[in-house]
Each structure stands twice: as C-alpha cells, then as structure tokens.
Amino acid sequence: MPGVIESLSTINSLLRTGLAIVLVGLIGAGGWYGYRIHTEGDRALKQRDEQLASYRNELLAKQDLLDQQKLQLQERDTTIAEQEVALREKDERIQKLDMSLRLLKVNHRVGWLTVLEQDVDPATNRLYTVGQFVEVNDQGQPISAPKEFRVNGDVIYIDNWVVKFDDKYVEHAEIDRSTSLVLFRRIFGEDQTPNDGFPIDTVGARPKAYGSDNRVSDFEKRIWDEFWTIANDEAKAKELGIRAAHGEAPSMKLQKGKSYRVLLRASDGLSITPDSGPPPIPGEPPA
Description:
This protein is of the alpha+beta class. Helix content is 45%, strand content 26%. It has two domains: 1-105, no CATH class; 108-275, no CATH class. It has helices at residues 2-105, 167-171, 218-225, 227-231, 234-239; strands spanning 107-121, 126-134, 147-152, 155-165, 181-189, 198-199, 242-248, 251-253, 259-265, 270-275. The longest helix is centred in the first third of the chain and has 104 residues, at 2-105.
C-alpha cells in the first residue's frame, strides 16, 4: 500500500511538473506571440508613418511646383501687362512723331504775289514792276484786300516778322502755338529803302491769315507789341514757348506774267516760289 501511495505521489508530481512545463510553454508561446504581434505592429506603424511621410513630401513637392508655376504665371502676366503698356507708349510716341513730321511738313498758303505789269519807263529808261499782293486761304480765295505796289527794277523783298515756337507745341498742335506766326510789314524793291516800302499788315492788328476775327488775342498782342523785346530776351521767349523771333526779308526776282506763292511752314519761315496756277481774282475779299 505504501508503494501505491508513493507511486501516486510520483505520478502527481510528474503531472504537476508536466503541467508547469506546459503552462510555462504556453506563457512563453503567448509572450513570443505577443512580442511578435507588437513587433509587427510597430513595423506596420513605422511603414505607415514612412508612407505618410513620403506622401507628405510628395504633396509638399507638388505644392512647391504649383507655387512655382503660379509665380511663373504671375511673372508672365506681369511681363505681358508691361509689354502691353510699353506697346501702347510706343504707339503713342509713333503717333506723336508721325503728327510732328506731318505738321513740320505742312505748308500754309498765306499769300499770292502777282506781276501785273513790267516794262521800261520811257521817262527814266529804267525797268519798273507793278505787282499785287493778297492774302489767301487754303482754297486760294482772297481773305484780305489786295495791296498794289510799284518798284523800280524787278527784285522785291517781303519784310516780315516771324515767330517760331518750340517743336513740342507744334507736335501737340497747341492752340496759338501750333505753327509759326508771321506778320507782313511791307514790300520794297532793291532800289528802295525799307522805310519807303509798301505796308501790308498793321502792327498790333491780327493778320487775316490767322482768322477772320479782327480781335487779336492777348497772347498774340503781347507777341507783336513786345516783338523786339522778346526777340532780345531769352527768358521772355522761353516763357512764351518761342524758340526764335526775328525779322526776315526773303526776296524774289519777278518775271512778267508770273504769279508767286508765299508759303509759311509750321516750324519755319517764309518761302517764295513761282506758281503755274491762276492767281486769285483781284478785288475785295469775299464777305
């Protein structure tokens, strides 16, 4: 009996040992499994974090690229806008230059000189010339009463005062200063003194070529009233936009049966040229 009890005790001890071994194995297996799960979870989390970081970097790179493209578009738009402004400015300058060139080339027909008679005076045996000067409009119609003159010889001088304005006023076609101004003083022959010449315009009155209104503007009045003062005073001339003010007396050798145009260029003085067209009808200007 004692042997049986001892055997049972041994078996019980073996069972407990085996159970303990199994229990330890199960605990170890569970711990390894838990460690494995934890490790794989960390690895998965790390992979996910790395993937998220990669996505984030990719998004940031795309955002940087988008920002660069936006900046390039803004710079392009700015460049286009600047180019449009530059083109408009160039176009305006071209138009102004074109206007300036056209104005500088414009000729204003301001007078017509016609030889009425040319012969030798039997009393003196000297050549004489009878002529007529009349101011005309752009259509060649008289705008003032004709002025007749007789000179010894065949060479006449047209004494005039001319005022030339700065080119910028001519370019912009500014009122009162868009073209040179001229005032005809007198016509005289080469054998006469200027004081013995035949008067044309009245100093202080508005020349008919600049309008039918006899009233002279304050601006024009100041110019003609102070002509020689302005001509000799650089500061006064600059104040009025005048680049030159002086007297001129272009001359022409007249031929029998010919007519001559007296022209004023916008930025220049007078010129006298022969004209093959018919002269204006002598007489009083049209009403």
